[in-house]
Amino acid sequence: MKADRAQAPRRPVCRRAGWLADTGAATFTSLASVALALLCIADLPVASAAPNPISVWDFGAKGDGVTDDTAAINAAIVAAQKQGPGAVVSLPAGRYRTALGAEKSIRIAGADGLTFQGEGDTTIVSGDLDAPVFRILDSQRITVRRISIDHDPLGYTQGTITGVDVAKLTCEVTIDPGYPAPNEPRFKGAQVHPFVFPEKAYYQLDRHWPNPVEMVRTGERTWKWKLQGPSHLDNWPGKRFFLYTESRSHAFILSHLRDTTLEDIRYWGGGANAGFYVNGLEGLTTFRRFVIGAPTGSDRLYACAGGGQVSGLRGKLLLDRCDFSRIDDDGLDILSNYTRILGQKDARTLVVQAKNSDYRPGDRVELWDWRHKRKRAEALITAAQGQPGGTFLITLDRDVATERVGAGVGLHFSRESMTDGIDRLINVATLGQETIIRDSQFQVFRAKCLNLKATHCTVERCTFRNSFQPAISAAPEWYFEEGSAIRHFTVRDCTFTDNNHPNIVIGASPVTGLPGAKPTVSAAPGDVSHDSAQILIEGNSFAGFGTTPSVFSWNWPVGPAITITNAAQVTVRGNKFGPLAERAPPGTPKIIVENSADVRITDNQGLTAEQTTGR
Known about the structure:
The chain is mainly β.
């Protein structure tokens, strides 16, 4: 087989030169010198020229804000893939409409080393709120950069509440110019989100929004709504609101990728579902300067329902200088769903549900006692085989004991699943090798900025502001069957301002109760665990925490800056605690520690012993 010339060593050529010199054949000196030069040139590695960038204009894209450019963009991507690694798809400055016809997404599949980038002011505007703008799957070394993304039509409307009649449960509203009429069919059943605390940039979540059931137009942009539900209208007049419908669109769906980079992306949401949903990531996944929010100078009150969700994280994740704001639900979820154990064939063989599951030999799994919400055992998978009916047959490297198995009742995301007591299996191998979130900003209306389950996770130099639920929740979520316990977790040099619930929540209280009933937090000795461990909270500043009432007081108290529950090996040091918010309940502590062990609280400013409560 002929050797690759670019990889061939050059030393033999030098030895040939020495041999020529030693012969004393002076008459051939000039010829030998020429030959030597040619040989050396021939043996030098030849760098292959980078493929020329492929412009989407060459495939018919217009970027005129009118033409559906989806097919042309996808054709350019296919042509670039044929060039091999290093290919670049270029979008000259323009406004590219997509998803107006049969093709709904920009698609990259089976690619290696492809870059997709905008040149100048490049915006992609999707016309479909039920399809992802980008669908990238089964690829490696993909980069998407310098792109703005929006939706038209918008998936929400907004305006001002101008008056209410509490007795009749009616209100009058004015819709902002340029926004959709609220009686469009897609808004049927949508919820009203009034900013009853506009100075805090979030609305009060009380689960009793009186949503519109009848709408009568009274003017060009004015409406009278008949409302359904208990009366909570006293503080509505003059308040701004938005009303959005459920959609399934994301800016990005990323699936089964290795070494992926999204940088300098600006996603204006437009009322869509979320910025990204990713599943099955290996290598390094980077979000750099990824912005979710409203366009500069815009009057938009709302971006999208959520920031992003990450599941099946087998590699490393980096969020660097990102900004997620005007988001309704969680800013970032790192998930690993618990799976019900349906049965046990023998001491080492389990049958489990296959919901969102990725089991591989060598994966470390944990078996959880779901009644007491604590880890019972851990093991390595030696074999995993999909079975008919959406199940997996899992073989482990050691004996394990189950206590309660079965399919359960109710939905996976429900109070029934929270309290069914059926043993769960969680794949720790899909929680990531390392996660770093740094130099980023987060603000959400009614949920958590960061909802984390990742192991070896560091959050540093970030800003969290005006968010209703905990800014950082590092704990299992029993309602959503998400786990596991948090381990090797650091929050360092961050700023927390005007966040309502505990700014940082470590660990979670086990919950009990009857299926369908309101869960009850359990403090029984048998329900105490210290599975969340090795936590460091240092150098952060907290101000204005605990501002409004909440229906979630059963889960998180309003006010404390930090709560630590069912955790161990926790250090809280060098933080600065400002005063509680004016409306915080009297006597609210700044730190609450519950059912935990080896918690060290040292060298903090603005924190007295009386402001730390242990239970």
